[in-house]
Amino acid sequence: MTSLTLLGKTGIDLIAFLFSANLITSMMFHISLNDVLIMSRKSYNIFLMSQEVQIRQDILDGLVVKQAVRDIASKETKTSKQALLYFISDDFSNLCKRNNIEKDGIVFAIKELNEYPILSKKRLAEDVCSLIDMYFGIGSK
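Predicted structure:
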């Protein structure tokens, strides 16, 4: 009884629909309440796994942005330029869409950050990384 309450009625609703649509008759299949609970549990577990994957995707997205911001402040010109290219790439656009982020504002801020001298840029980049941590729910370094 507790399992049924926790798992919802998804499996039961499906079986009821199939019976009502004459897609399943009691002569064709013998489906027990246990079978329905097993189907419900599997659906629920898939739902939980999907939620966990989404949370992990958000964290990975945050870590990617955080590293790209740090790369902007790199002493290595090549690394800094590659990071700038990332912020105008389709990959970054997709990340922004996935996380409901306004891309244009970020790109403008990154271009402004890139204009600062290296030491100021590094300090500001770490401040931006702290904001990224808060937005994406990432723990500290």
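Summary: Residues 33-72 form the longest helix (40 residues).
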